[in-house]
């Protein structure tokens, strides 16, 4: 069975820890990589030999905002087809407004509890 590879781009260590715990609880073949720096993540993707199927991206990041990251990602043909999921503490309505000009992205607000996060990730993956 093939592993699903995902990249989490988030600068909040607590959110990263919770996200990884939720992924591990799914008992799926998922390999998770974390980057706390959006610019570094983009540069690493440009030279990667194995690309993720999904990028979970926080909108509020230093160096490159979530929107800037997506725009630069989509400008690279080899990276343009990676599924991007905006994973942010903004409300769902705010996220819709922030991402209205971005194509090919899914969005979800960071849930308030672990079980909601697990359920949401299970539905996406």
Automatic annotation (TrEMBL):
Domain of life: Bacteria
Sorted UniProt keywords: Phosphoprotein
SUPFAM superfamilies: CheY-like
Classification via InterPro entries: Bact_response_regulator, CheY-like_superfamily, Sig_transdc_resp-reg_receiver
Chain positions found as 4-aspartylphosphate: 58
Domain Response regulatory residues, every copy: 5-125
Family matches, as PANTHER family: RESPONSE REGULATORY DOMAIN-CONTAINING PROTEIN (PTHR44591:SF3), STRESS RESPONSE REGULATOR PROTEIN 1 (PTHR44591)
Annotated protein name in UniProt: Response regulator
Organism: Flavobacterium psychroterrae
